[in-house]
What does this fold into?
Amino acid sequence: GAGVSQSPSNKVTEKGKDVELRCDPISGHTALYWYRQSLGQGLEFLIYFQGNSAPDKSGLPSDRFSAERTGGSVSTLTIQRTQQEDSAVYLCASSIHTGTGNEQYFGPGTRLTVT
Amino acid sequence: GENVEQHPSTLSVQEGDSAVIKCTYSDSASNYFPWYKQELGKGPQLIIDIRSNVGEKKDQRIAVTLNKTAKHFSLHITETQPEDSAVYFCAASLANAGKSTFGDGTTLTVKP
It folds into this structure.
């Protein structure tokens, strides 16, 4: 079946502009995660959605970052007034909590470049 | 919160040799430990995972061991091949809830 998809695959924007990144999780997966990966670095947790519960926003680096998940499926990560330090690959993952594990399925990422 | 440390950050081995990557975690409540492989330009993909009720799990050339007392777990790759070259991430979490905490990754290079 289809995996996690993300769009766009690449985004170049000017400093100060707003950007929206989209994630389509695997159908039926109740949990959705956003991570940021800077060049050669590890995965930095940003935000986590689980069903209808309030999202865990503890990883968002500033109030310029926000995310929503509509209808328990598609999610959009919005970065306002982008800065050069926002340049990174933004990864989305989804999982289905079975009670025995929460294997995450990752999308290919969106590479954001802020000039 | 959980803290995961991963070592080494880079590892270079000759084709056919074994590779070992080690991770430690801080939260004794964590009970799910996956390992992900990330190839260039792609998202991480799960390669093996272990739950806290077992000490070792094997899948062909890959094995993971877990020591809950010491709070560390390791990935073992035997008979390495050039296609094993990638970045490997360990993670720790609760099996039924919440986010995973990832290590910083290990860049494995297998030289032919």
